[in-house]
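Q: I'm building a small set of examples for a reading group on sequence design. Run inverse folding on the following structure and report the sequence directly after it, with nothing in between.
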């Protein structure tokens, strides 16, 4: 068997296939599984947005009572049906408010771009410095402002504390914690149940260095790397027959229950896939703990090689996918391997480790070096912007254009992508593209009942090189009341 590799992307499963007696369980761990043919061209564009209603004068009055007199309200937007964002600013100073349409203050914070001072609830109280005081010790201007905001509600508690920005009074009213300078200016506020009173240490405010991130990731993920390093996964691949099977999926973050059910279902297939490809976004933020908590546990019982490409949510603590690479291998952003007479190519379209031009140069060389009698499958995270219905959530237009040209020039047989949380298909310049972003993340709502669903794809390669696909859709079973 020929096996070669370079760098990384995607998620699929492959194995010798004799589908005459295949077994696909119709249920798994509380989900009903429906099997259907490939293809979903449906797309329903969203209706044009309605002109948002401006905040009422009452909301602007709340901002003016709290923000310093020298600031002006320069911006507002309706972020959700139940929440306005309103900004008061002056020069480098910004006070950002979240307020409900009815006039309930949710939170606000302060930022000074010139001095790099940030005052945000939950990051204000240095550990061990908060001391309770009487209300009479508070600045008179603060007490006056709070009385105007809450005329019928008393101050519940008051403290004095040290913050990264200097001494602050901490005041509790109606479930909100207010943070006030000694001169009486209120700088920030947030809900107590949202962690506004959390205590921190100064070191918590300093981002970890790349060396610290890597050291922690290797310490905690090291025991798993022997299994999941992509080069070792390649070495584990079974010998290909004249036909084989693989599975494709992606965007498995955010819903551990769906992710675990899909992996268990893949493991129950007969014939068994030879490997699995995930098109990225395997965890929510790329943090080491997320891999340990919900990504890795379902995989420990699966003995099928897994190949992953980085998604934008896998970038980790500093955007360089250090945690990801600590698990899947130092060179696991872009790579390929040959299996049977197919070349499987994994391309990083998400991380900021290197510019897109360099990635595309590597991709061009990898495709050009493919044996003439081989078929090519490419897996990446972001779809191309060339396909109009996907352009709202796609790779940037310039690298998309070059990527699409390479796919067409080298007659790529299939491109699997994720990023959009749905199942959707399209053909562009003769190349079939499939979005398989239904591995667990919250679903997009533009692709109809066949597309807005959690799913994965079984791919069977016949001896003549034909690629047959089956889409397995997962529906939560209703429990009897």
């Amino acid at each position: 068997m020929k096996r070669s590799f370079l760098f990384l992307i995607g998620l699929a499963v492959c194995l010798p296939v004799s589908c005459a007696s295949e077994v696909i369980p119709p249920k798994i761990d509380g989900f009903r599984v429906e099997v259907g043919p490939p293809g979903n061209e449906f797309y329903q564009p969203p209706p044009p947005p309605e002109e948002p209603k401006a905040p009422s004068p009452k909301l602007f009055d709340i901002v003016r009572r709290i923000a310093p007199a020298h600031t002006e309200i320069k911006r507002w937007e309706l972020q959700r049906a139940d929440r306005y964002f309103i900004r008061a600013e002056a020069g480098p100073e910004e006070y950002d408010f979240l307020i409900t349409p009815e006039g309930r203050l949710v939170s606000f914070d302060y930022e000074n771009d010139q001095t790099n001072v940030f005052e945000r609830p939950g990051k204000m109280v240095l550990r061990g410095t908060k001391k309770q005081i009487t209300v009479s010790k508070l600045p008179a201007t603060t007490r006056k402002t709070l009385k105007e905001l809450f005329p019928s509600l008393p101050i519940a508690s008051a403290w004095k504390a040290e913050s990264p920005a200097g001494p602050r009074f901490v005041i509790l009213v109606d479930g909100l914690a207010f943070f006030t300078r000694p001169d009486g200016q209120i700088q920030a506020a947030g809900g107590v149940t949202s962690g506004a009173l959390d205590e921190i240490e100064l070191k918590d405010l300093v981002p970890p260095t790349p060396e610290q991130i890597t050291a922690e990731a290797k310490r905690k993920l090291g025991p798993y790397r022997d299994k999941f390093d992509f080069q070792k996964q390649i070495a584990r691949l079974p010998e290909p027959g004249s036909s084989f099977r693989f599975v494709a999926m992606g965007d498995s973050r955010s819903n551990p229950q769906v992710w675990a059910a899909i992996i268990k279902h893949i493991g129950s297939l007969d014939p068994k896939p030879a490997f699995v490809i995930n098109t990225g976004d395997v965890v929510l933020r790329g943090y080491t703990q997320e891999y340990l908590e919900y990504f890795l546990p379902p995989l420990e019982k699966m003995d099928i090689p897994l190949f992953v490409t980085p998604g934008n949510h896998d970038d980790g603590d500093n955007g360089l996918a250090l945690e990801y690479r600590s698990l899947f291998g130092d060179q696991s952003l872009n790579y390929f391997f040959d299996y049977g007479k197919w070349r499987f190519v994994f391309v990083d379209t998400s991380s900021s480790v290197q510019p897109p031009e360099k990635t595309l140069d590597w991709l061009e060389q990898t495709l050009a070096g493919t044996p003439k009698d081989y078929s090519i499958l490419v897996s990446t995270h972001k779809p191309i912007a060339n396909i109009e219905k996907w352009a709202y959530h796609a790779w940037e237009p310039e690298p998309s254009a070059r990527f699409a040209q390479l796919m067409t020039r080298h007659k790529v047989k299939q491109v699997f992508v994720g990023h959009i949380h749905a199942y959707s298909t399209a053909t562009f310049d003769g190349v079939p593209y499939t979005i398989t972003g239904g591995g667990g993340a919250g679903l997009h709502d533009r692709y109809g009942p066949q597309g807005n669903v959690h799913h994965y794809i079984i791919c069977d390669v016949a001896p003549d090189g034909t690629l047959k696909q089956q889409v397995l859709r997962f529906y939560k079973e209703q429990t009897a009341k």
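The longest helix spans residues 210-228.
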